[in-house]
Design brief:
33% of the residues lie in helices and 29% in strands. It is of the alpha/beta class. A hairpin with a 2-residue loop joins strand 13 (282-294) and strand 14.
Length: 373
Amino acid sequence: MTTFATTSNSAARRAITVLGAGNIGFAMALLLQQSGDYDILVADRDPARLAEVAALGISTRLTVDDASLQAAIDGRFAVLNALPFHRAVPLATLCASAGVHYFDLTEDVASTQAIRALAANARSVLMPQCGLAPGFIGIVGNDLVRRFDTLHTLRMRVGALPRYPQGALRYNLTWSTEGLINEYCNPCEAIVDGVRTTVPALEGLETFALDGVEYEAFNTSGGLGTLTETLAGKARQVDYQSIRYPGHNAILKLLLNDLRLRDRRDLLKDILETAIPTTDQDVIVVFATASGLKGGRLVQDSYSAHIVGTEVAGHRLSAIQLTTAAGICTALDLVAQGKLPQQGFVGQESVVLADFLANRFGSAYAREGELVH
């Protein structure tokens, strides 16, 4: 069972709104409630989901129109957005106008670029991509980069996988289906031969073993966050791939390319949600490796982690719920504690890995993470 220590007295609690009462929004509210440091409001248009949150003793608000959504934002210290990616830019715009700090989990590259443009004149923090990937993996990657005098390659691999895979895909739905389809279909940012570029999703297939388990990995969109901008001109090769069990990639190519379902994403979403069961028996696999020159020697550093779910205050959180919620709650905490900038766009590279892992929420990663030399 996991607990989250209180660090300030209740009289100074900061008012925050969690937008979205789905699996991730519920987890975010639960973690923040356990800290005791935040006055939490959860807003959603689904009364049934809000009822589950209300059962925790957390305030809720039904948002059925723009006015009720605006009311859930105005006057708050921060908004944590757990809604689908296409809501990111409109919500960030509202928060910027209201002078409210904004955090989200989007993997959508275009949305992040639009939010960055919004942040140029913002009075508050706009910090997208605060989940697992993008999010934590970018913090790990940037920490590895800092260990080198000259960086050659940075390769980041993340998988949200079922612990007990079944079927030909050997996969279960563990998070947003829309976000998953985005990752499988959209172009992927990378640095190749020192040049920022895009590479096709599903390509770059590789296989590897980690702790005796066989995996495959291939290009997916969004996981790098803003790292390609940060490392432009500083590295020969930077890429991100999703980890799956062997055979997954070939079936995806059949569905998306041969059957052309990449052009019919609504149908693909319906097929996946109808045919592939969800599970909370999942595992997060994180593997990042960097190579380059350190003290005149060619060396390699790596980071790996396996994270499973846990129980928080009597509620079972899956691994993807725990890691995603922990990521965005840590970002909020670090801004509230003054350890991150207090206005404008904040990329994940601004977060120091040691600060993240020392945080009460980020410690969900620290228990399982390991730097391997």
